[in-house]
Amino acid sequence: MKETLRILVVDNNEVDRMAVRRALTQAGVCIELSEVTDGSDALATLRTTIYDCVFLDHRLPDQDGLALIQRLRAAEIKVPLVVLTAQRDEQVAVELMKAGATDYLSKSRVCPETLAQVLRHAMRVHHAETQTALANQRLRESNEQLLRQNQELEQQRQQIELQNFKLLEASRLKSHFLATMSHELRTPMNAIIGFSQILLRPKFGQLTHQQTDMVERILNNGKNLLMLLNEVLDFSKLEGGRLELKPELFDLTKIINIVVAQMRSLAEAKKLSLRVDIDMQQPLVFNDSVRVRQILINLLSNAIKFTESGCIWVEVKELPKNQLAIAVRDTGIGIAPKDFKHIFEAFRQVDQSMTRKYPGTGLGLAIIDSLVQMMGGKIILESQLGVGSMFKIEVPRQLSLPTAVGSLAAYNLDGHDIFCSVQNPHHSPSKSSTAAMGFPKFKL
Ligand code: ADP
Asked: Which residues partner with 421 through β-bridges?
C-alpha cells in the first residue's frame, strides 16, 4: 500500500492551488492535501500540524515567501519547503535557498512528472538534512561528554599529583624526624654507655655483685638501644639518599675475624658453635669497611638471634670476575619461601605480632639490601623452615667510586695496578628464585 503524504499548499491563487493538487494526483501520489491562502495561516498551521512537504507561493498577500521561510526556520519548524515562483529568477532562488527553502520551481513548469520529482527530491533532501543534523547533534553531545570527561580526568590528575606531593612531603618529614630523633637520642645514649663502662672499671671503686649486675644490664641495654638508633638513622639516610659509601683499602679477613670475635660471646651464651672459613688468596679489598662490618654484624646477630641450637658458619671466598662472596649460614628456625621477598622490606618481620619472640626493628635486612645495591652487588638467600638459613652477599672486590661518572681510579692490590671505572652505584640487581642447594633460594 502506498504511503499517504500530507501536503500543505500556501497560495492565495485558487487556480495555482488547484494546479498543484491536480498535478500531484495525476502523478499518482497518494496525498492528503491542505490549503491556506496567506503567510500567517501557514505559520499557524505549521506550528500545530506536521506535513511531509509544503508548496509555497513566492508572493503571498500578507508577506513574501522569503520572509515566511525565515520565520518558519526561526521557529524551528522543520519541513521540506518547495517555493513556487512566478518567473525563473536565479537570484531569487539563491536567496530562498539561503533562507532555508528545500527547493524551488517555476509555476510555469508545474506538471505531474516535474512536481512529483520535485516532491520526492525535497523529501529526500529534507530527510538527509535531518539525519545530518541529528548526527551533528550526537557528535556535539559526545564531544561535550568527552570534554567533560577530559576535565574530570585533568582534575583527578591534579588531585593525584597533589596527593603525591603531600605523600612525598610526609615521607620527607618522617625521614627528617627519624634522623633528628635518632641523632638526638644517640648523644645521651653514648653518655649512658660511656659512664656505665667507667663504673665497671675497678679503679673507680669496687661494686657489689648486685651493683655490677645492674650496671652491666644498663650497659648492655644501652648498647642495644644505640644499635637500634643507628639502624633508624642509617635507614632514614638511605631513604633520603644521603648515605654515601666511603671506600678504602682494607684487609677483609681482619674485619671478618674481628667481627666474629666480637660476636662469639653472644653465640656462646646460646651454646651455638661459630665457625669461620676464609678462602682468599688476596685479602685486600677496596670497599667501605664500616659498612662491610655493619652488614656482617647484622647477618651474624640475625643468625644468632634466630638459632636455638646447632651451628653458625661464616664463609668468605673469591669468585670469578673479581667478585667476593661472604655467607652467613645457620641451623635456625628458617624462613618460608613466601616470606623471602618481604623480609627485605623496611619494618617487615616474619612475625609481626606484638608478642613476637625475637626483638628487632625489622630494618636490618632493608639496610643490608640497600648497602649491597649501592656496592653494586647482590644478596642470595637460601632457607628452609626448621632447617636453617644462608644469607650470601656477592660484591665486587673494588667498589666503583661515587664521584664523577666516567672517571678512572687506580689502586694497587697484590702488586698489580688495578683500574676501576666509576659507575652509577644505585643499580638494581635482578631477582630470581632457585633451589640448588637444598634450601629454597632467592636472589635479590
Ligand atoms: P629484625 O632482625 O630487626 O627483625 P631484619 O630486617 O634483620 O629485622 O630481619 C627481618 C626478618 O627476617 C626477621 O624479623 C626474621 O623474621 C627474618 N630473618 C632474618 N634473618 C633470619 C635468620 N637468620 N633466620 C630466620 N629468620 C631470619
From this structure: 408
